[in-house]
């Protein structure tokens, strides 16, 4: 059986590296016709900066804003990309804009350039996009970015909550790896030790730097480590050829909670809480993860996520239905109401 590994061609991390974006696009020969896809709020100023830099370097540049990360939006922007014959789609933003931009790049046959403005999740490098289809969340395989420009100075301006959410998304790898190994043992699913180790390393990084993430002003060194860890996790997915190393039962819980409570919190915040509970099911050290999340100021309970206890229980009971093809510790039948309630109570998620 063959196995395809997609990797980014160039990853640039550092301070003020955005200024060099034109040179990198040129050196990689990605193209001259560029479509910038950005969010509509805080990230717009960065999209304008990118536009100015690239226009000055004599690229033909167009700007569009993402309204929502859904399939219809991808179709709308893909037709714009085709119309202007975009050779490169540049995603500038945190979550939504990058998810949509990579799908637009794939649909219009363009190269993808990722310019993350917040370290809130590991989609900044991965070829997988989380998109809404009706009220369902789907994971679409798109393209690996040809170029990633991670400007730490810009990322440092992101609200603290987004930074801590990125830590939560990475902590989820502890349970994701266990679920992947379980699926390998029970279902004969492909398992790649190297990709698994790489994803695990990114989670361990968060633990290592947790005292710094707990500080009011997070040091640059810790931010850089977070961005590198998010990139590693994305690359682990590229190596595995699936989101398996980065997404297990804790992600199923997070997606289920989004359905039950209508996207009540940030993705990484929900994943963190999910990880506490899934590690309990795996018989691992969930207390340690809970302690770290608490220490860095991430939510560890229903109240802190802004949901009712009943929402947590409901999400736990339907989590296994989110991606029936993805075997995890939740099994094929999922948790009963009683088991879900007990799980949430024992781990302190509900009281
Ligand atoms: Zn995630």
Note the main attributes of this structure.
glycerol-1-phosphate dehydrogenase [NAD(P)+] activity; 8 strands; about 50% helix; about 350 residues; lipid metabolism; two-stranded antiparallel sheet; globular; Dehydroquinate synthase-like, alpha domain; alpha/beta; six-stranded parallel beta sheet; single chain; phospholipid metabolism; Rossmann fold; binds zinc ion; G1PDH
Detail the topology: elements first, then pairings.
Layout: E1 10-14, H1 21-27, E2 33-38, H2 44-56, E3 60-65, H3 71-83, E4 88-93, H4 96-108, E5 111-116, E6 128-133, E7 136-141, E8 147-151, H5 152-155, H6 160-171, H7 173-187, H8 193-208, H9 210-213, H10 220-240, H11 249-261, H12 267-281, H13 286-295, H14 302-305, H15 309-322, H16 337-346
Parallel strand pairs: 1-8, 2-3, 2-4, 4-5, 5-8
Antiparallel strand pairs: 6-7
Helix pairs in contact: 3-4, 6-10, 6-12, 7-8, 8-10, 11-12, 11-15, 12-13, 15-16
Zinc ion (ZN) is lined by residues 121-122, 169, 247, 251, 267, 271.
Function: Catalyzes the NAD(P)H-dependent reduction of dihydroxyacetonephosphate (DHAP or glycerone phosphate) to glycerol 1-phosphate (G1P). The G1P thus generated is used as the glycerophosphate backbone of phospholipids in the cellular membranes of Archaea.
Subunit structure: Homodimer.
Cofactor: Zn(2+)
């Amino acid at each position: 059986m063959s196995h395809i590994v997609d990797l980014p061609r160039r990853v640039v991390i550092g301070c003020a590296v955005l200024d060099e974006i034109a040179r990198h696009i040129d050196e990689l020969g990605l193209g001259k016709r560029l479509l910038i896809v950005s969010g509509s709020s805080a990230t717009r100023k960065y999209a304008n900066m990118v536009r100015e830099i690239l226009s000055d370097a004599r690229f033909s540049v167009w700007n569009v804003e993402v309204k929502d990360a859904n399939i219809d939006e991808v179709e709308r922007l893909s037709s714009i990309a085709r119309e202007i014959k975009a050779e490169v789609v540049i995603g500038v933003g945190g979550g939504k804009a990058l998810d949509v931009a990579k799908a637009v790049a794939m649909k219009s046959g363009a190269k993808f350039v990722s310019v993350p403005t917040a370290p809130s999740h590991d989609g900044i490098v991965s070829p997988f996009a989380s998109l809404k289809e009706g009220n369902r969340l789907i994971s679409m395989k798109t393209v690996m970015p040809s170029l990633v420009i991670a400007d730490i100075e810009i990322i440092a301006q992101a609200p603290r909550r987004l930074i801590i959410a990125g830590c939560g998304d990475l902590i989820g790898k502890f349970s994701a790896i266990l679920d992947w190994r379980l699926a390998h043992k029970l279902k004969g699913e492909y398992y790649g030790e190297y990709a698994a180790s790489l994803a695990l390393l990114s989670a361990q990084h968060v633990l290592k730097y947790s005292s710094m993430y707990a500080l009011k002003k997070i040091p640059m060194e810790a931010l850089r480590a977070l961005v590198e860890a998010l990139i590693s996790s994305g690359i682990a997915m590229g190596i595995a050829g699936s989101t398996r190393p980065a997404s297990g039962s804790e992600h199923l819980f997070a997606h289920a909670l989004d359905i039950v409570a209508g996207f009540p919190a940030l993705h990484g915040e929900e994943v963190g809480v999910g990880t506490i509970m899934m590690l309990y099911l795996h018989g691992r050290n969930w207390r340690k993860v809970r302690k770290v999340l608490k220490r860095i100021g991430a939510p560890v309970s229903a109240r802190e996520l802004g949901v009712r206890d009943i929402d947590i229980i409901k999400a736990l009971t339907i989590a296994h239905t989110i991606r029936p093809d993805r075997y995890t510790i939740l099994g094929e039948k999922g948790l009963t109401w009683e088991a879900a309630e007990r799980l949430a109570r024992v781990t302190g998620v509900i009281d």
